[in-house]
Write a structure and sequence with these properties.
Blueprint: H1 2-11, H2 14-45, H3 51-59, H4 65-71, H5 73-89, H6 92-95, H7 102-114, H8 119-136, H9 145-150, H10 152-166, H11 170-179, H12 183-195, H13 205-237, H14 240-244, H15 248-282, E1 295-297, E2 300-302, H16 308-335, H17 340-362, H18 371-376, H19 384-407
Antiparallel strand pairs: 1-2
Helix pairs in contact: 1-15, 2-13, 5-10, 11-12, 13-15, 13-16, 13-17, 15-16, 15-19, 16-17, 16-19, 17-19
Protein backbone atom coordinates (compact mmCIF):
# COMPACT_ATOMS: atom_id res chain seq x y z
CA UNK A 1 0.00 0.00 0.00
CA UNK A 2 2.88 2.37 0.80
CA UNK A 3 4.41 1.65 -2.61
CA UNK A 4 1.09 2.42 -4.30
CA UNK A 5 0.78 5.68 -2.37
CA UNK A 6 4.34 6.59 -3.36
CA UNK A 7 3.58 5.98 -7.06
CA UNK A 8 0.48 8.17 -6.78
CA UNK A 9 2.56 10.92 -5.19
CA UNK A 10 5.06 10.70 -8.07
CA UNK A 11 2.22 11.17 -10.55
CA UNK A 12 0.68 14.18 -8.84
CA UNK A 13 3.67 16.45 -9.23
CA UNK A 14 2.83 20.06 -8.43
CA UNK A 15 4.74 21.35 -11.47
CA UNK A 16 2.77 19.12 -13.80
CA UNK A 17 -0.50 20.11 -12.13
CA UNK A 18 0.43 23.78 -12.49
CA UNK A 19 1.05 23.23 -16.20
CA UNK A 20 -2.34 21.51 -16.58
CA UNK A 21 -4.06 24.38 -14.76
CA UNK A 22 -2.35 26.94 -17.00
CA UNK A 23 -3.35 25.02 -20.12
CA UNK A 24 -6.88 24.75 -18.76
CA UNK A 25 -7.10 28.52 -18.34
CA UNK A 26 -5.84 29.00 -21.89
CA UNK A 27 -8.40 26.51 -23.23
CA UNK A 28 -11.16 28.28 -21.32
CA UNK A 29 -10.42 31.73 -22.69
CA UNK A 30 -9.60 30.52 -26.20
CA UNK A 31 -12.51 28.11 -26.76
CA UNK A 32 -14.93 27.30 -23.95
CA UNK A 33 -15.89 30.85 -22.92
CA UNK A 34 -16.74 31.63 -26.55
CA UNK A 35 -19.03 28.58 -26.67
CA UNK A 36 -20.82 29.86 -23.58
CA UNK A 37 -21.28 33.29 -25.14
CA UNK A 38 -22.66 31.68 -28.27
CA UNK A 39 -25.08 29.57 -26.23
CA UNK A 40 -26.22 32.62 -24.27
CA UNK A 41 -26.76 34.60 -27.48
CA UNK A 42 -28.83 31.82 -29.06
CA UNK A 43 -31.21 31.97 -26.08
CA UNK A 44 -32.97 34.84 -27.85
CA UNK A 45 -31.21 35.06 -31.22
CA UNK A 46 -31.62 31.60 -32.72
CA UNK A 47 -33.92 30.41 -35.48
CA UNK A 48 -36.89 30.59 -33.09
CA UNK A 49 -35.94 33.88 -31.45
CA UNK A 50 -37.12 33.74 -27.84
CA UNK A 51 -40.33 31.85 -28.67
CA UNK A 52 -39.09 28.31 -28.00
CA UNK A 53 -37.69 29.36 -24.63
CA UNK A 54 -40.98 31.07 -23.80
CA UNK A 55 -42.94 27.91 -24.67
CA UNK A 56 -40.63 25.82 -22.49
CA UNK A 57 -41.17 28.19 -19.56
CA UNK A 58 -44.95 28.13 -20.08
CA UNK A 59 -45.55 24.44 -20.79
CA UNK A 60 -42.57 22.43 -19.59
CA UNK A 61 -40.49 20.05 -21.67
CA UNK A 62 -43.28 18.74 -23.94
CA UNK A 63 -45.93 20.54 -25.95
CA UNK A 64 -49.44 19.09 -25.78
CA UNK A 65 -52.01 19.85 -28.52
CA UNK A 66 -54.05 22.11 -26.24
CA UNK A 67 -50.90 24.00 -25.27
CA UNK A 68 -50.00 24.48 -28.91
CA UNK A 69 -53.48 25.87 -29.52
CA UNK A 70 -53.17 28.13 -26.47
CA UNK A 71 -49.89 29.58 -27.74
CA UNK A 72 -51.69 30.48 -30.98
CA UNK A 73 -48.82 30.73 -33.46
CA UNK A 74 -51.19 31.67 -36.35
CA UNK A 75 -52.67 34.48 -34.23
CA UNK A 76 -49.23 35.84 -33.39
CA UNK A 77 -48.27 35.74 -37.07
CA UNK A 78 -51.46 37.57 -38.06
CA UNK A 79 -50.75 40.34 -35.53
CA UNK A 80 -47.23 40.83 -36.92
CA UNK A 81 -48.50 40.86 -40.50
CA UNK A 82 -51.02 43.55 -39.56
CA UNK A 83 -48.21 45.58 -37.99
CA UNK A 84 -46.16 45.27 -41.19
CA UNK A 85 -49.20 46.10 -43.37
CA UNK A 86 -49.40 49.43 -41.55
CA UNK A 87 -45.68 50.11 -42.09
CA UNK A 88 -46.02 49.22 -45.78
CA UNK A 89 -48.96 51.55 -46.25
CA UNK A 90 -46.93 54.50 -44.93
CA UNK A 91 -43.69 53.95 -46.90
CA UNK A 92 -43.32 55.14 -50.49
CA UNK A 93 -40.75 52.48 -51.43
CA UNK A 94 -43.57 49.94 -51.27
CA UNK A 95 -46.28 51.92 -53.06
CA UNK A 96 -43.83 52.85 -55.84
CA UNK A 97 -43.56 49.13 -56.54
CA UNK A 98 -47.33 48.50 -56.26
CA UNK A 99 -47.03 46.80 -52.89
CA UNK A 100 -49.76 47.61 -50.36
CA UNK A 101 -49.54 44.74 -47.84
CA UNK A 102 -47.19 42.05 -46.58
CA UNK A 103 -48.60 39.34 -48.84
CA UNK A 104 -47.76 41.42 -51.92
CA UNK A 105 -44.29 42.17 -50.49
CA UNK A 106 -43.65 38.44 -49.92
CA UNK A 107 -44.76 37.65 -53.48
CA UNK A 108 -42.57 40.45 -54.85
CA UNK A 109 -39.48 39.08 -53.07
CA UNK A 110 -40.15 35.53 -54.19
CA UNK A 111 -40.69 36.49 -57.84
CA UNK A 112 -37.70 38.83 -57.90
CA UNK A 113 -35.17 36.13 -57.09
CA UNK A 114 -36.70 33.61 -59.46
CA UNK A 115 -36.92 35.96 -62.46
CA UNK A 116 -34.52 35.82 -65.40
CA UNK A 117 -33.03 39.31 -65.01
CA UNK A 118 -29.79 40.89 -66.13
CA UNK A 119 -27.08 41.51 -63.55
CA UNK A 120 -27.86 45.22 -63.49
CA UNK A 121 -31.58 44.62 -63.05
CA UNK A 122 -30.92 42.04 -60.34
CA UNK A 123 -28.77 44.51 -58.42
CA UNK A 124 -31.47 47.18 -58.69
CA UNK A 125 -34.10 44.75 -57.38
CA UNK A 126 -31.79 43.66 -54.57
CA UNK A 127 -31.30 47.27 -53.51
CA UNK A 128 -35.07 47.84 -53.49
CA UNK A 129 -35.66 44.70 -51.41
CA UNK A 130 -32.93 45.72 -48.97
CA UNK A 131 -34.61 49.11 -48.53
CA UNK A 132 -37.97 47.44 -47.97
CA UNK A 133 -36.52 45.05 -45.41
CA UNK A 134 -34.89 47.92 -43.57
CA UNK A 135 -38.27 49.64 -43.30
CA UNK A 136 -39.83 46.47 -41.89
CA UNK A 137 -36.89 46.27 -39.47
CA UNK A 138 -38.06 49.52 -37.84
CA UNK A 139 -36.65 51.83 -40.48
CA UNK A 140 -33.10 50.43 -40.35
CA UNK A 141 -32.63 51.80 -36.83
CA UNK A 142 -31.46 48.42 -35.54
CA UNK A 143 -28.31 48.82 -33.46
CA UNK A 144 -27.88 45.30 -32.00
CA UNK A 145 -29.23 41.75 -32.12
CA UNK A 146 -31.89 42.39 -29.48
CA UNK A 147 -33.40 45.21 -31.55
CA UNK A 148 -33.07 43.15 -34.72
CA UNK A 149 -34.96 40.21 -33.22
CA UNK A 150 -37.69 42.53 -31.93
CA UNK A 151 -38.58 43.75 -35.43
CA UNK A 152 -41.87 42.40 -36.87
CA UNK A 153 -40.17 40.89 -39.93
CA UNK A 154 -37.67 38.83 -37.92
CA UNK A 155 -40.31 37.83 -35.37
CA UNK A 156 -42.52 36.59 -38.19
CA UNK A 157 -39.65 34.54 -39.61
CA UNK A 158 -38.92 32.97 -36.22
CA UNK A 159 -42.61 32.16 -35.75
CA UNK A 160 -42.66 30.51 -39.18
CA UNK A 161 -39.67 28.38 -38.13
CA UNK A 162 -41.50 27.48 -34.92
CA UNK A 163 -44.62 26.61 -36.92
CA UNK A 164 -42.59 24.42 -39.26
CA UNK A 165 -41.16 22.51 -36.27
CA UNK A 166 -44.27 22.00 -34.16
CA UNK A 167 -47.17 22.15 -36.64
CA UNK A 168 -45.99 21.40 -40.18
CA UNK A 169 -43.32 18.84 -39.32
CA UNK A 170 -44.94 15.77 -40.90
CA UNK A 171 -43.74 16.53 -44.43
CA UNK A 172 -40.15 16.80 -43.24
CA UNK A 173 -40.40 13.54 -41.34
CA UNK A 174 -41.93 11.85 -44.38
CA UNK A 175 -38.93 12.90 -46.43
CA UNK A 176 -36.62 11.21 -43.93
CA UNK A 177 -38.78 8.08 -43.91
CA UNK A 178 -39.07 7.84 -47.69
CA UNK A 179 -35.62 9.01 -48.80
CA UNK A 180 -33.03 8.57 -46.04
CA UNK A 181 -30.69 5.57 -46.46
CA UNK A 182 -29.82 5.37 -42.74
CA UNK A 183 -32.06 2.85 -40.90
CA UNK A 184 -31.61 4.41 -37.43
CA UNK A 185 -32.64 7.85 -38.74
CA UNK A 186 -35.69 6.37 -40.48
CA UNK A 187 -36.68 4.58 -37.25
CA UNK A 188 -36.41 7.83 -35.27
CA UNK A 189 -38.47 9.73 -37.87
CA UNK A 190 -41.19 7.06 -37.63
CA UNK A 191 -41.19 7.33 -33.83
CA UNK A 192 -41.46 11.12 -33.99
CA UNK A 193 -44.33 10.85 -36.43
CA UNK A 194 -46.08 8.49 -34.03
CA UNK A 195 -45.43 10.44 -30.81
CA UNK A 196 -45.55 13.97 -32.36
CA UNK A 197 -42.60 16.33 -32.60
CA UNK A 198 -43.39 17.85 -29.22
CA UNK A 199 -40.19 18.09 -27.16
CA UNK A 200 -39.48 21.71 -26.23
CA UNK A 201 -35.80 21.35 -25.37
CA UNK A 202 -33.71 24.06 -27.06
CA UNK A 203 -32.93 23.05 -30.63
CA UNK A 204 -29.28 24.14 -30.32
CA UNK A 205 -28.42 22.69 -26.93
CA UNK A 206 -27.22 19.30 -28.17
CA UNK A 207 -25.11 20.79 -30.94
CA UNK A 208 -23.59 23.52 -28.74
CA UNK A 209 -22.92 21.31 -25.73
CA UNK A 210 -21.47 18.45 -27.78
CA UNK A 211 -18.95 20.83 -29.37
CA UNK A 212 -18.16 22.23 -25.92
CA UNK A 213 -17.71 18.69 -24.56
CA UNK A 214 -15.50 17.75 -27.52
CA UNK A 215 -13.11 20.59 -26.65
CA UNK A 216 -13.14 19.41 -23.03
CA UNK A 217 -12.39 15.90 -24.28
CA UNK A 218 -9.38 17.05 -26.30
CA UNK A 219 -7.99 19.01 -23.36
CA UNK A 220 -8.53 16.07 -21.00
CA UNK A 221 -6.64 13.72 -23.33
CA UNK A 222 -3.70 16.15 -23.48
CA UNK A 223 -3.76 16.63 -19.70
CA UNK A 224 -3.67 12.87 -19.14
CA UNK A 225 -0.60 12.49 -21.37
CA UNK A 226 1.15 15.31 -19.53
CA UNK A 227 0.32 13.68 -16.19
CA UNK A 228 1.32 10.13 -17.13
CA UNK A 229 4.32 10.66 -19.39
CA UNK A 230 7.03 11.34 -16.76
CA UNK A 231 6.24 8.38 -14.45
CA UNK A 232 7.71 5.31 -16.13
CA UNK A 233 9.98 7.28 -18.41
CA UNK A 234 11.79 8.83 -15.43
CA UNK A 235 12.25 5.39 -13.84
CA UNK A 236 13.75 4.03 -17.03
CA UNK A 237 15.86 7.11 -17.67
CA UNK A 238 17.54 6.59 -14.28
CA UNK A 239 17.42 2.78 -14.71
CA UNK A 240 15.44 2.35 -11.50
CA UNK A 241 13.52 -0.45 -13.16
CA UNK A 242 16.66 -2.61 -13.19
CA UNK A 243 16.90 -2.31 -9.41
CA UNK A 244 13.22 -3.14 -9.11
CA UNK A 245 13.68 -6.33 -11.15
CA UNK A 246 16.14 -7.69 -8.57
CA UNK A 247 13.29 -8.77 -6.29
CA UNK A 248 9.80 -10.25 -6.57
CA UNK A 249 8.30 -7.22 -4.85
CA UNK A 250 10.19 -4.89 -7.16
CA UNK A 251 8.72 -6.56 -10.23
CA UNK A 252 5.26 -5.90 -8.83
CA UNK A 253 5.92 -2.16 -8.87
CA UNK A 254 5.19 -1.98 -12.58
CA UNK A 255 1.69 -3.33 -11.95
CA UNK A 256 1.20 -0.88 -9.09
CA UNK A 257 2.32 1.92 -11.38
CA UNK A 258 -0.29 0.85 -13.91
CA UNK A 259 -3.05 0.84 -11.27
CA UNK A 260 -1.89 4.25 -10.03
CA UNK A 261 -1.99 5.50 -13.63
CA UNK A 262 -5.61 4.41 -14.12
CA UNK A 263 -6.75 5.76 -10.75
CA UNK A 264 -5.00 9.09 -11.34
CA UNK A 265 -6.44 9.31 -14.85
CA UNK A 266 -9.98 8.78 -13.60
CA UNK A 267 -9.56 11.31 -10.78
CA UNK A 268 -8.00 13.95 -13.03
CA UNK A 269 -10.56 13.42 -15.80
CA UNK A 270 -13.52 13.63 -13.43
CA UNK A 271 -12.13 16.85 -11.92
CA UNK A 272 -11.55 18.43 -15.35
CA UNK A 273 -14.94 17.33 -16.75
CA UNK A 274 -16.81 18.55 -13.67
CA UNK A 275 -14.98 21.87 -13.60
CA UNK A 276 -15.66 22.43 -17.31
CA UNK A 277 -19.30 21.28 -17.38
CA UNK A 278 -20.49 23.29 -14.37
CA UNK A 279 -20.25 26.73 -16.08
CA UNK A 280 -22.23 25.47 -19.07
CA UNK A 281 -24.97 23.96 -16.92
CA UNK A 282 -25.04 27.07 -14.71
CA UNK A 283 -25.55 29.29 -17.78
CA UNK A 284 -29.16 28.06 -18.09
CA UNK A 285 -28.62 24.68 -19.71
CA UNK A 286 -29.24 23.06 -16.34
CA UNK A 287 -32.90 24.06 -16.65
CA UNK A 288 -33.19 21.38 -19.35
CA UNK A 289 -31.62 18.62 -17.26
CA UNK A 290 -34.80 16.52 -17.21
CA UNK A 291 -36.05 17.50 -20.68
CA UNK A 292 -36.20 14.80 -23.36
CA UNK A 293 -34.16 15.40 -26.48
CA UNK A 294 -35.52 13.38 -29.41
CA UNK A 295 -36.88 15.85 -31.94
CA UNK A 296 -36.75 17.24 -35.45
CA UNK A 297 -35.43 20.77 -35.06
CA UNK A 298 -32.82 23.12 -36.38
CA UNK A 299 -30.32 21.33 -38.59
CA UNK A 300 -31.16 17.69 -38.01
CA UNK A 301 -32.73 14.95 -35.93
CA UNK A 302 -31.81 14.23 -32.34
CA UNK A 303 -32.00 10.46 -32.46
CA UNK A 304 -32.75 9.15 -28.96
CA UNK A 305 -35.39 10.17 -26.44
CA UNK A 306 -32.98 10.49 -23.54
CA UNK A 307 -32.96 13.49 -21.22
CA UNK A 308 -30.37 16.21 -21.46
CA UNK A 309 -28.99 15.11 -18.09
CA UNK A 310 -28.45 11.61 -19.44
CA UNK A 311 -26.80 13.11 -22.51
CA UNK A 312 -24.37 15.09 -20.34
CA UNK A 313 -23.43 11.91 -18.45
CA UNK A 314 -22.97 9.94 -21.69
CA UNK A 315 -20.58 12.54 -23.10
CA UNK A 316 -18.72 12.60 -19.78
CA UNK A 317 -18.46 8.81 -19.96
CA UNK A 318 -17.14 8.99 -23.53
CA UNK A 319 -14.47 11.45 -22.39
CA UNK A 320 -13.54 9.19 -19.47
CA UNK A 321 -13.22 6.20 -21.81
CA UNK A 322 -10.92 8.13 -24.14
CA UNK A 323 -8.88 9.33 -21.16
CA UNK A 324 -8.40 5.78 -19.88
CA UNK A 325 -7.39 4.62 -23.36
CA UNK A 326 -4.95 7.50 -23.66
CA UNK A 327 -3.46 6.74 -20.24
CA UNK A 328 -2.92 3.11 -21.24
CA UNK A 329 -1.23 4.06 -24.49
CA UNK A 330 0.94 6.62 -22.70
CA UNK A 331 1.85 3.99 -20.11
CA UNK A 332 2.87 1.55 -22.85
CA UNK A 333 4.92 4.18 -24.70
CA UNK A 334 6.69 5.14 -21.47
CA UNK A 335 7.69 1.51 -21.01
CA UNK A 336 9.62 1.66 -24.28
CA UNK A 337 11.04 5.20 -24.04
CA UNK A 338 14.58 5.87 -22.88
CA UNK A 339 13.86 9.47 -21.83
CA UNK A 340 11.07 12.00 -21.58
CA UNK A 341 11.87 13.58 -24.94
CA UNK A 342 11.55 10.23 -26.73
CA UNK A 343 8.32 9.61 -24.83
CA UNK A 344 6.84 12.94 -25.92
CA UNK A 345 7.86 12.35 -29.55
CA UNK A 346 6.02 9.04 -29.49
CA UNK A 347 3.09 10.47 -27.55
CA UNK A 348 2.33 13.29 -30.01
CA UNK A 349 0.82 11.10 -32.78
CA UNK A 350 -1.08 9.06 -30.18
CA UNK A 351 -2.46 12.24 -28.61
CA UNK A 352 -3.44 13.65 -32.01
CA UNK A 353 -5.19 10.40 -32.93
CA UNK A 354 -7.20 10.17 -29.69
CA UNK A 355 -7.99 13.90 -29.80
CA UNK A 356 -9.26 13.43 -33.35
CA UNK A 357 -11.46 10.56 -32.18
CA UNK A 358 -12.73 12.82 -29.40
CA UNK A 359 -13.76 15.50 -31.88
CA UNK A 360 -15.53 13.25 -34.40
CA UNK A 361 -17.21 11.09 -31.76
CA UNK A 362 -18.32 13.64 -29.14
CA UNK A 363 -19.19 16.54 -31.45
CA UNK A 364 -22.79 16.06 -32.65
CA UNK A 365 -22.95 12.81 -30.66
CA UNK A 366 -26.27 10.95 -30.93
CA UNK A 367 -27.40 13.21 -33.78
CA UNK A 368 -27.99 12.17 -37.38
CA UNK A 369 -25.09 14.31 -38.65
CA UNK A 370 -22.39 12.88 -36.37
CA UNK A 371 -19.45 11.87 -38.60
CA UNK A 372 -18.91 8.40 -37.14
CA UNK A 373 -22.62 7.60 -37.15
CA UNK A 374 -23.45 8.92 -40.59
CA UNK A 375 -20.28 8.74 -42.69
CA UNK A 376 -18.44 5.72 -41.33
CA UNK A 377 -21.27 3.47 -40.14
CA UNK A 378 -23.90 4.82 -42.55
CA UNK A 379 -26.48 5.13 -39.77
CA UNK A 380 -26.90 1.35 -39.56
CA UNK A 381 -26.25 0.82 -35.85
CA UNK A 382 -27.14 2.71 -32.71
CA UNK A 383 -24.61 5.06 -31.10
CA UNK A 384 -21.42 3.82 -32.82
CA UNK A 385 -19.64 6.97 -31.61
CA UNK A 386 -20.10 5.78 -28.02
CA UNK A 387 -18.83 2.32 -28.96
CA UNK A 388 -15.72 3.78 -30.58
CA UNK A 389 -14.79 5.57 -27.34
CA UNK A 390 -15.35 2.38 -25.38
CA UNK A 391 -13.26 0.45 -27.92
CA UNK A 392 -10.32 2.83 -27.41
CA UNK A 393 -10.47 2.23 -23.64
CA UNK A 394 -10.81 -1.55 -23.94
CA UNK A 395 -7.93 -1.91 -26.43
CA UNK A 396 -5.69 0.31 -24.32
CA UNK A 397 -6.49 -1.67 -21.15
CA UNK A 398 -5.92 -5.06 -22.80
CA UNK A 399 -2.55 -4.10 -24.28
CA UNK A 400 -1.41 -2.41 -21.05
CA UNK A 401 -2.40 -5.46 -18.97
CA UNK A 402 -0.51 -7.77 -21.35
CA UNK A 403 2.58 -5.57 -21.09
CA UNK A 404 2.22 -5.47 -17.30
CA UNK A 405 2.05 -9.28 -17.08
CA UNK A 406 5.04 -9.73 -19.37
CA UNK A 407 7.06 -7.26 -17.29
CA UNK A 408 7.39 -9.88 -14.56
CA UNK A 409 9.42 -12.08 -16.93
CA UNK A 410 11.56 -9.42 -18.60
CA UNK A 411 15.17 -10.53 -19.03
CA UNK A 412 17.51 -7.75 -17.98
CA UNK A 413 20.76 -9.67 -18.16
Amino acid sequence: MRIFAYELKKLWNWRILALIVAMGALTWFAFLSESLRSYDSLTNHGIYGSYQKEMFELYGDTLEPEELADYDIPGKKAALISEMDEIISNETVFTENNIYNYAQYDEFVENSYSSDLSEEEQKKISDIIFTMQSKLDYGNRVQNLDEGYSSPLVRLQTLEALEHTYIDYEASLRRFIDNDFRPVVVRTAEKLLEMRNANLIRYDIQMTFSLYAAVVGVFTVIAVIILIAPLLTTDRMWKLNLMQYSSTIGRRIFRLQFIATIVSTLVLSIILITAAYIPFLASGAGDYWGAHMMSLAGWGIQLYNITFGQYVLILAGMTLALSVGTACFAFILARFSANIMMMLIKAVPVGIAVAGISVISINMALMDNNMIFSTIFQGRIDAPEVMVCGFVAVVGLIVAVIISIREKRVDVA
